[in-house]
Amino acid sequence: MKLGTIKIEALKLMFANNEDELSIDNHDNNDPNGVAPLDLTEAAADPQYRDYLNNMNGSINRCFSILEARKVLPTKRAVLIENAAQNEYGKEINLSAISDLDDIQRVTVRNRNGYATAVDYDTEADTMILPTVCAGDTVALIYYPRLDRLTPTTSNTLDLPIPDKIATIIPYYVKYDLFREDDESEANVALRRFEESLSEITERAGSYQSAVDHVVGFWGD
């Protein structure tokens, strides 16, 4: 989902009775009658929307922090060692090269026979320490990613690296965050909707991970 779409949906929640048609830019939806929708650049100059739009990137960044803390974003996989050349003990691996690493879910080792299992590890700052790595092992890190934060110059046409089922609830948080002083009651309704939807996503993710944790060995990660 594009950043601009999230902003438009947030504005629609805030101004439910407004008849303005909004688009990310005026090329998105050219009306055959010559009436172009109000694009976000124009909306940012409108006193009705200006303050909200100016503060939306910050609000969405705060929502990103919540999504990261709840660990609802899809995990990513990084191969740390591929087909180890020899047996090693107390193997240290520098994780600083994984720029979007937010937290570790698990570490898996697949041996030369294709058998894979989760393994224990220790961490010290940006270094992971594995007790044992055997010749032929492939070590992979499954981790929760950190989202890049929005800046004032981030384009509204940016495709956010977030599944739509998660992106679609961000406007509810934005409404809560930016609407609290204008209408506390409406803001709290939006927050409840956000939290309920986020809890459902968290529960589904937890159920899946519980099933994964009970797998002792499997072919592949």
Entry summary:
By secondary structure, this protein is of the alpha+beta class.
* Number of distinct helices: 6
Low-confidence regions: 32-36, 207-221
> What is the helical fraction, as a range of percent?
25-40%
Strand order of the largest sheet: 3-9-5-6-10
State the end-to-end CA separation. 28 Å
Order of helices and strands: HEEHHEEEEEEEHHHE
Keywords, please?
221 residues; alpha+beta; 2 domains; 5-stranded antiparallel beta sheet; 3-stranded antiparallel beta sheet; 37% helix; disordered C terminus
Task: Give a topology summary.
Elements: H1 3-14, E1 22-23, E2 38-39, H2 40-43, H3 50-70, E3 76-81, E4 88-94, E5 101-110, E6 115-118, E7 122-124, E8 127-133, E9 138-145, H4 164-167, H5 170-179, H6 184-213, E10 218-219
Parallel strand pairs: 1-2
Antiparallel strand pairs: 3-9, 4-8, 5-6, 5-9, 6-10, 7-8
Helix pairs in contact: 1-5, 3-5, 5-6
Outline the structure in words.
By secondary structure, the chain is α+β, with helices and mostly antiparallel strands. The protein has 2 domains: 3-72 and 147-210, no CATH class; 76-145. It is 37% helix and 23% strand. It has 6 helices and 10 strands. The chain has helices at 3-14, 40-43, 50-70, 164-167, 170-179, 184-213; strands at residues 22-23, 38-39, 76-81, 88-94, 101-110, 115-118, 122-124, 127-133, 138-145, 218-219. The strands form 3 sheets. It has a 5-stranded antiparallel sheet with strand order 3-9-5-6-10, with no helix packed on it. Strand 5 and strand 6 (115-118) form a beta hairpin. Helix 3 packs across helix 5 (170-179) and helix 5 packs antiparallel against helix 6 (184-213). The protein starts with a helix and ends with a strand. Residues 32-36 and 207-221 have low confidence and may be disordered.
